[in-house]
Every structure is written in structure tokens, then in C-alpha cells.
Amino acid sequence: MTVRHQKTVKTLLEAMPYIRRFWGTTVVLKYGGAAMTSPRLQEQFAEDIVLLRLVGIKPVVVHGGGPEISRHMARLGMEAEFVDGHRVTDAATMEVAKMVLVGKVNKEIVGLISRHGGTAVGISGEDGHLLRVTPKKHQDKAGNAVDLGDLADEANIPVVASVGADENGEAYNVNADTVAGELAAALDAEKIIFLTDVEGVYEDQGGEVAPVFECDLAYLGALQAAGRITGGMIPKVAAVRKALESGVASAHIIDGRVEHAVLLEILTDAGCGTKVTA
Q1: Are 173 and 101 in contact (CB under 8 A)?
Q2: At how many degrees (to 10) do helices 66-75 and 91-100 cross?
Q3: How far apart are CA 161 and CA 164, in angstroms?
Q4: First-to-last CA distance in the chain?
Q5: Helix axes 39-54 and 106-115, enclosed angle (nearest 10)
């Protein structure tokens, strides 16, 4: 047996207890950042998702498409506006967002997973009243998520676009982090994972900024109170809190720029981000 083969066997043995522990559980993954724009990382994300399903873990992918929406708006001469990490969406912006999220990005992700041997099903939060939305000032709040359990149990991989509808059927663009948190809570997920373009949540360590590898909600709240949580990390932290307070065992904010980041976080001892528990 060569050294390479020995390393392969060692890796499989390292993954075995995690596969045993998480077999049959649901993991909600918010897909975004570089992992969503780099062709190489896109392929690796799809491989990770398919492998998770093959070893008995049930992934549910939630995606936005902020950069793609912004690019389409720029081509149309429209200006994007954000408040506390949330996109402000008027009727014209919503038309673009829906076209991009449901008509383009969702189909691309489904196709990517399917090419790697998975059975992906693309849906939006509008379908079957999956995400009921209550409009708020500067943002739309998703709630009352419908159970996706049957869809995932049939070996399908749900891919959910972050579009919801209010009680009158009007569509809204909802922050994908918020959607992921609501779905994780509704599905009694084991984990919720956010792919980002940073190493995780950061803290000050003796005057130097360093990533936090593991913490609880109380510590995360302290970081937020100290002003360490800003911009796009604000809705992620809110989604983490929603999920954990609803019974999800752990939340992970991971560096999606790392190759096979999802598998590293779930099936190895190393991980590649911040793990948060209640």
C-alpha cells in the first residue's frame, strides 16, 4: 500500500464516527460568497453535497444571489441599497431579484448538483407557501416555514431560493441567511452552516484580531455588543440565534474559500470556521 493510499484510508477512518453520528440528520447549508462564484469551488461544493447525501446525511441548500442581483441592477441603471446587511427591495428590485434567484441561480445550482450524481430539486419560498413573509421596515421577515422533510427523505436534495410571499401572495426577496435560520428551525436540523468569505467570527486577542474556533450564544452576543459583528455578518448571527434557540444543535460560520469546506467542517476533526452552540 502506497503512502497516498494510507492517507486515503486514514481520512476515511477519521470521517467514520462523524458519518455514524450524523447519519439520518438534516443539515441546512446557506450557500454564498466565493464558493458560489468560483467555478472550482462551485464544483467542490456540489461534490460535498452529493457525498453527504450518499452517506445518509440530508442536506438542504439555501441560496441568495446578492452579487448577481447587483450586477443585473447595475446593467439596468438601478442602485442597490442596504441596511444592516439587508438589501432594501422595492417593486422594481423585486422583479430583478426574482428573475435572478429563481430563474437563473437556482437552476444553475440544481444542474451543478445533478451533474455530480445528486438528485436536486429546485424550489423557491413562494412554492406551496414554503416561506410566509411579514414585511418590516428595511427588510422582509420570513417565518412559518413548511416542513421539507418528505422531500429530503426521498433522497432528493432541496435547493431553496430565498424568495417568500405574504398572505396575499405578493413576492418578497428575503435575506438568505434569515431563510436558512427559519428552515433549520422548522426542520429540526442537526446543523446549520453558512459559507462565507472569512475565516469565521473574529475577536480581539491581545490587540490582534483572530478567528474564534468555538463559542456559545452568550459569547457571540458579547462580541456583537462590542461592535465586532458588522455588515453582512449581522443577519448571519441573527439566523444562528434563531436556529440554536429553536433546538438546532450547532451552527457553523465557515470559510467557503477553503477547498471542500463543507466536508472539512462536518466530517473531520479540523473544521474550517466558527462553531456556535447554545
Answers
A1: yes
A2: 120
A3: 9
A4: 44
A5: 60
H-run or E-run covering 72: helix 66-75
Q: What is the CA radius of gyration of the chain?
A: 18
- The CA distance from 60 to 187, in Å, is 10
What span, in angstroms and rounded, lies between the C-alpha atoms of 14 and 248?
Answer: 24
Q: How many CA atoms lie within 13 A of 30 on its CB side?
A: 35
* Residues in CB range of 138: below 8 A, 6 or more apart: 83, 84, 86, 88
Looking at the whole model, is its pTM more than 0.85? Answer: yes
**Helix H or strand E encompassing 48:** helix 39-54
Contacts of 116 (CB under 8 A, 6+ apart): 43, 46, 47, 49, 50
Tens digits of per-residue pLDDT, 147-174?
A: 565 666 677 999 999 998 888 888 888 8
